[in-house]
Amino acid sequence: MARTRDAEQAGEARRARILSAAMKLFAENGYRGTSLAAVAEAAGITRSGVLHHFASKEALLAAVLAERDEQAFDAVEVDREYEGPAALRAFEIIDRLAARNETDRDFTRLSHLALFGSADAPELAQDWSNERLRTYRDNLARVIEDSAEAGDIRTDIDAEAIALVLVGALTGLTELWLRDESLDMVTAVRTLTGMLRRDLVPDRG
Questions:
Q1: Cα angle 63, 69, 74; round to 5
Q2: Is the pLDDT score of 2 beyond 90?
């Protein structure tokens, strides 16, 4: 049993090293410019060792993108307790995600290459990114709708439309910022969420 646990822990540590090395190399050199051999060398293992954990370079990129999102959600404290309407907490998370994107330009660019169908992103990563956007929209719409049903925000709203506006704004503004770093993406996102807060919360007076 002890040997089994040790082997599992060693495997998890090796996988983490591979992901860390791949994140750095994909960010620096892009997808096409990064080989599995280079990832293996950076992780201190063999190429076959990388393939033991990830069946292909495409699968490795998908895992890198998923890990990036997990780190981003941890950074913005998605699971933190919050007092007040759930929809307002969702707006706060959008604000924090924009700020997080601004602090990590390389990885933000990497995920957006997948979103916008760049030749540097394989179909697998594009499919993953499309599913990611659908999940964001669906989750946001559900939170907004639940808040409306609870009477925390206005009820005469279209939750799906608001979710689409938020995801589209965050994605589009991030893409514009990647093209022109002088743009204040974070303030633009906060301006939108601020307007929604003022418009959606009913006047209790």
A1: 125
A2: no
